[in-house]
Alpha/beta hydrolase (Kibdelosporangium aridum), 210 residues
Amino acid sequence: MSVPVVISSAGAELAGDLVVPGDARAIVVFAHGSGSSRHSLRNRAVAELLQDNGFATLLLDLLTEDEDRRTTELRFDIPLLADRVVTAVEQIGDQMVVRGLPIGLFGASTGAAAALIAAARDSSVRAVVSRGGRPDLAGSALADVRAPTLLIVGELDQQVLELNQQAAQLITAPMHIEVVAGASHLFEEPGTLEHVARLATSWFDEHLIA
């Protein structure tokens, strides 16, 4: 079933879409990247495969429409975005339909940094996946991440790949970088996004359910 939810964070009302398949085994909260939203077709494609494999998903706007319309600066305010991911993790656990389920985070672009900071601050986060993310923007928080972390980067996205490799050296939790052959930053090439979804599902299966 799909349930509209609102996450309240420091006076902001953040809209989210919670989908809970029957006999859900865990929940994955999505942290979208700069300029994106819960309507992201790429993240929804990943979420659908997760749902098919027994994962509840929360796709959440980390900024209100008014905030996003007034200024683009907030899209790169990583501490603010991280605070909102932490709040979402806390509040979604109060939803009856997912209460008690293990929690994972899926971040894209700047949302990956926010997800990693949230994981460093909240020990209830048990696994993290980044798609084309900027984990380097999480800074010193990377050393405090305890959740197993998968960094997925496109082979053709060389600058972001280098930033991921640098960030990986600071992550002390179990982690892996997966380079998707023939993929650019947005994974627009045929079959690449489906591959990302399979990788994410396998990682959450191994580290969130076990």
Summary: Residues 192-209 form the longest helix (18 residues). The longest strand covers residues 2-9. The CA atoms of residues 90 and 122 lie 9 Å apart.
